[in-house]
Amino acid sequence: MAATSVFTQSISTIPSSSSSSDVSGKSQALKLGVISSFSSSSSYSNVFKSLRISCGSSSTSNGGGRGSCLGTKMVSSPSVLSPKFLDFESTVFKKEKVTLAGHDEYIVKGGRDLFPLLPDAFKGIKQIGVIGWGSQGPAQAQNLRDSLAEAKSDIVVKIGLRKGSRSFAEARAAGFTEESGTLGDIWETISGSDLVLLLISDAAQADNYEKVFSCMKPNSILGLSHGFLLGHLQSMGLDFPKNISVIAVCPKGMGPSVRRLYVQGKEINGAGINSSFAVHQDVDGRATDVALGWSVALGSPFTFATTLEQEYKSDIFGERGILLGAVHGIVESLFRRYTESGMSEDLAYKNTVECITGIVSKTISTKVYFLTLIIMLSLHRNCGLMRPVYLSLFQQGMLAVYKSLSEDGKREFEAAYSASYYPCMDILYECYEDVACGSEIRSVVLAGRRFYEKEGLPAFPMGKIDQTRMWKVGEHVRATRPKGDLGPLYPFTAGVFVALMMAQIEVLRKKGHSYSEIINESLIEAVDSLNPFMHARGVSFMVDNCSTTARLGSRKWAPRFDYILTQQALVAVDAGTPVNRDLISNFLSDPVHGAIEVCAQLRPTVDISVPPDADFVRPELRQASN
Ligand SMILES: NC(=O)c1ccc[n+]([C@@H]2O[C@H](COP(=O)([O-])OP(=O)(O)OC[C@H]3O[C@@H](n4cnc5c(N)ncnc54)[C@H](OP(=O)(O)O)[C@@H]3O)[C@@H](O)[C@H]2O)c1
């Protein structure tokens, strides 16, 4: 195995501090977030300490109650697991070291200038079979084909689909044809390929793995874009057959964004979606370079190492959390709260969805370009108070969101953050453990089987998720949105969203994930890949362009976040529960902010553009067919 995993013994933890409290007025919660101050300081105290613990030692954290008592205990308790340190060797690509929050990690930077290395990386491969044409299939197949063509490689990229699949027509439209030998039957494609990218739904992988394995050539390479299949095999005490290599390249973004940014990246070298990679089995020493070549060919700005197990835990968890499910839950609960308190529906939509998908995502993701700044200043030219907000966007990250608020806005943010952090963590923690123990994987496999009529019971395909009043209001808001408008920065919404993001980061950190994985799964994928889709066309357009696994999980977990925020967080704000100052000071000094800045510098800042006629999205979500 070329990629080796070595556990480090050093972990970082955010500082423990004595509990303190500060009462913040509950009435702040429903004020319009007009910003009146601007702090130019981007510095934050990077105070954290390293604990020396032995790998696998268990945490003593487990508060008996809620609120600041539990809060202080959990925030200050040591990590459950130390982050995995994953090193690898490549004979083709340059490995680089990055230091994230004090931890050294290794990555490979991408770029179109690396395409000439692909023939070397793919040595021994004549045909790459891309199996499936859902979200990832079209993106990966086309990116690979384009990159190999640019490298003047004669490796064939062939699509394999199940008999009678409606996707044959889509694949043909993208230029893959039976006549040219680039489109065919699933099993014939698997048995004829040297590298098989298995991009059918995870539930279908679980139901068909035996036949897939039996069709594969000895010494060929199985490529996955998820660790799900390993999780499923593990739950039955199984593993992959020993006569094939098993690798993964897992884009940290939906297929349409993998394709869209690759195309945009033709003009800005290095634009794309980051990927993790894993080498689970390596029968002949080629696996690491093949995986890295695959990732570079997809257009990943940087590729970081993981294991299949860490991947499925963080990925399935992340999409149920802030990436899809939790963000959906947040906006549903806040829209209801704002409208019930008398806010107009349009404004409530702007103060929830537009705030998160616009100004908050933009601020976290990137410094605003000069041109955007001019547009925003001119749109809000009559509101002098908004100037500092837009000027502050030359900063980036979660701290920039907070720092761009007025003193009143900061208090509102803090009240929302303090009340939401532990309720969000409660559901996130449960979700992580459901994923880690295999329950969530089992749930996805069983749901996949209910798509079809059986045992005398009807079929239950996935239902729609954007049919309520809120999303109709959204259609109207988007239709009248001035070009380039990023929506209002509403402090309460920002406080809930950032609390959720930080709670997710903390759960992944406590569970021993690398910072590359944590930041991609909790932040970069949200603001760079997914939220732009909700900004463009609403929640279904974001969720349903993702994998079947993600779509099912989002539907299952979104109501849990809606419920807990409504039942606990918002009630606490209304009851005037004191702000947990420890949480706020830990947020301000968390080492993750520095790590995010490092990750941001590893990719060019390219905004994903989702035009109305986007042809890179799932057919059923294209505007013409709506
Ligand atoms: N989508 C994402 O955002 C994303 C991101 C990272 C990783 N991934 C991973 O990428 C892989 C592919 O996911 P995806 O989202 O692209 O696909 P998906 O939407 O989950 O699945 C769609 C594909 O699966 C095929 N399929 C479904 N049931 C099948 C069966 N019984 N036999 C054969 N084929 C079957 C479909 O065939 P038809 O075309 O015939 O309907 C379709 O091509 C998964 O491992 C996923 O976890 C996805």
Automatic annotation (TrEMBL):
Keyword Magnesium: yes
Highest taxon of the lineage: Eukaryota
Pfam families: KARI_C, KARI_N
InterPro entries: 6-PGluconate_DH-like_C_sf (IPR008927), 6PGD_dom2 (IPR013328), KARI (IPR013023), KARI_C (IPR000506), KARI_N (IPR013116), NAD(P)-bd_dom_sf (IPR036291)
Domain KARI N-terminal Rossmann, residue spans: 108-306
Domain KARI C-terminal knotted: 307-475, 477-621
A single GO cellular-component term on record: mitochondrion
Swiss-Prot/TrEMBL cofactor(s): Mg(2+)
Region (Disordered): 1-24
Pathway named in the protein's UniProt entry: Amino-acid biosynthesis; L-valine biosynthesis; L-valine from pyruvate: step 2/4; Amino-acid biosynthesis; L-isoleucine biosynthesis; L-isoleucine from 2-oxobutanoate: step 2/4
Metal-binding listed as a keyword: yes
Ranges of biased composition (kind: Low complexity): 10-24
Record PROSITE patterns: KARI_C (PS51851), KARI_N (PS51850)
Family from the record: Belongs to the ketol-acid reductoisomerase family.
Protein name: Acetohydroxy-acid reductoisomerase
Source organism: Dillenia turbinata
